[in-house]
Amino acid sequence: MSVKILVPEMGESVVDARVRRWVKKQGDAVTVGEPIVELETDKVDVEVSASKSGVLASIAHAEGADVKIGDVLGTIEGGAAVQGSRGPGVQESKGSETVPATPSARREAREKDVPLAAVKADGPRVTREDVRKSAPKAPTTTAGKPRTDIRERMSKRRATIAKRLVEVQATAAMLTTFNEVDMSAVMALRERQKQSFKDKHGVGLGFSSFFVKATVAALRDFPRLNAEIDGHDMVLKPYFDIGIAVGAAEGLVVPVLKDADQLSFAGIEQCIRDFAVKAKENTLTLDDLRGGTFTITNGGVFGSLMSTPILNPPQVGILGLHAIKERPVGVNGQVVLRPMMYTALTYDHRIVDGSEAVRFLVRVKELIEDPGVLLIEA
């Protein structure tokens, strides 16, 4: 008796996927719970496992094919493996299969024809970036220029990001307001406490936790920035699920700090560190990415001095952080150098008034510049 391998339900916001890699080839023996095929969605990669033991009898969709929830990927038959049978799956050497690697790293290795066993990993598993560093360079002319254009199909995530960025600009009335923050007090506090903080909690004390705490406090004062639009209604959220934008090989992802107001500084820093590791290894789950009432993005880690962040729909506010630079500022009648950061708040003017947005950003500034108040409110 054959059993169909179906594209599983992966959350209400995921309706389709792409076949990234067949772990098993047609004719291979499989056991219950063993991964058979990897699917790529606009959010995360998903492994589909065997629901019964037997033989992978057929493969209905080759690697790279787009599929929808409920589609039949293939079938499993009971019995011994069919000798010599090969479907559209891609073969890999045993050496590559035994190397600990992320799904995106395996795909990159196949596309670049790089043996995974020859890739030096910076961490416990080979990542896509590790493979790229080891890949041979594209052929060039004597002038050092590439001979041909390189055409690369966009991943599901990248294609979805592109689609949503265009959609949000067409549907939201986006405006951005700017301010600057004197980081002196936070930097001094961090310098005094960073070693004892790390000794006690096992994680470094960064700037992110201060801005998360300041954002939550400001959202309490200006609740329409913690809302969304549903038809003709404003839906105000009584909880604070803060999205933290993280760069990943396949494109920007926004894992969510659930109930951020209930987290300690150490809890926030631990979650953000875990998100960064998962993003690098492509192991973020749908639950990591689900929800979110407001987003923080930090272009400063890449050196950005100022930018206008774009909304993460259906949210109506996003806070952009930037690089800290010493600049001359006036303090008590004197011009002094201070470590300053430009901040930007992009908001949906359909439900957030300009005065609310400006005062929200001023509130964040006040709390960062006087972290004692921030600690008391937290």
Can you give a write-up of this model?
The longest helix is centred in the middle third of the chain and has 18 residues, at 184-201. This protein has helices at residues 94-98, 103-112, 128-134, 156-171, 184-201, 208-221, 265-281, 286-289, 354-369, 371-377, and strands spanning 3-6, 16-22, 29-30, 35-40, 45-49, 54-59, 66-68, 72-77, 174-182, 227-230, 233-236, 242-244, 256-257, 294-298, 317-321, 324-331, 334-348. α6 crosses α9 (354-369), α6 packs across α10 (371-377) and α9 (354-369) packs across α10. The protein is 30% helix and 25% strand. Strands 9, 12, 13, 14, 15, 16 and 17 form a 7-stranded mixed β-sheet that branches. It is globular and about 80 Å long. The protein has 378 residues and is of the alpha+beta class. The protein folds into 3 domains: 1-91, RNA polymerase II/Efflux pump adaptor protein, barrel-sandwich hybrid domain (OB fold (Dihydrolipoamide Acetyltransferase, E2P), Beta Barrel), CATH 2.40.50; 96-137, Dihydrolipoamide Transferase, CATH 4.10.320; 174-377, Chloramphenicol Acetyltransferase, CATH 3.30.559. The protein starts with a strand and ends with a helix. The protein is built from 10 helices and 17 strands.
